[in-house]
Amino acid sequence: MRILVWLTEGTWEACVDAARDFPGADITLLHVVDVGTEAALSGSAGLLGRLAGADPAELLAGAERRLFEAARAKLGRDAGTLTLRGRPDHEVVTACADADVLVLARDGEQSRLGPRSLGRAARFVVDHAPCRVMLVWPAAPPRLDSLP
């Protein structure tokens, strides 16, 4: 079984925890660098200000390397990695072509149950993934009485 785990800042831990429920599976950790983030960091004074001589590509690569290292450590076993650049929603759907299961986390409103618990990118991926999808809460789910 091929498991693809979409790692995003703030929710990756729950996805890695869920991937551990597939012992013996071939796991690939996926991170997508949004081209908008790269553009915001580019130039001598990008939207995020001067970076004191730091190369934006190196900053992103270093952060991604640390993310993969932390995810592998939490997983407790080796896993492949895949880095893509582009629009995250489209890149994740494309990466699912060879996966049996995609693991991703809810990235929207976390205080109550309902459709707003999915952000725009996660909603697109859930609606378009060409494989089974395991959708996890990044923390404890809200209580049933939080239904709208």
Structural account:
The chain has 148 residues and is an alpha/beta fold. It has a single domain, classed as HUPs (Rossmann fold), CATH 3.40.50. Helices cover 35% and strands 21% of the residues. The chain contains five helices and five strands; from the N terminus they run E-H-E-H-H-E-H-E-H-E. The chain has helices at 12-19, 35-41, 56-75, 88-95, 120-128, and strands at 2-6, 26-34, 80-86, 101-105, 132-136. Strands 3-2-1-4-5 form a five-stranded parallel β-sheet, with helices on both faces. The radius of gyration is 16 Å and the shape is globular. The mean pLDDT is 89.
Name some characteristics of this structure.
21% strand; 5 strands; Rossmann fold; alpha/beta; 5 helices; 5-stranded parallel sheet; 148 residues
Task: Show the helix and strand layout.
Layout: E1 2-6, H1 12-19, E2 26-34, H2 35-41, H3 56-75, E3 80-86, H4 88-95, E4 101-105, H5 120-128, E5 132-136
Parallel strand pairs: 1-2, 1-4, 2-3, 4-5
Helix pairs in contact: 1-3, 4-5
Q: Looking across the biggest beta sheet, what order are the strands in? A: 3-2-1-4-5
Overall helicity: 25-40%
What would CATH call the homologous superfamily? HUPs
Name the helix and strand elements from N-terminus to C-terminus, one letter apiece. EHEHHEHEHE
Strand content: 15-25%
- Output mean pLDDT: 89
- Per the CATH scheme, the topology name is Rossmann fold
- Quaternary status: single chain
How does CATH name the architecture? 3-Layer(aba) Sandwich
Beta strand count: 5
| CATH classification class | Alpha Beta
Spans where pLDDT lies below 50 across 5 or more residues: none
Specify the biggest β-sheet.
Answer: 5 strands, parallel
Shape: globular
Number of domains: 1
- Radius of gyration, CA atoms, in whole angstroms: 16 Å
In whole angstroms, the N-to-C terminal distance is 37 Å
What is the overall number of helices?
5
Structural class: alpha/beta
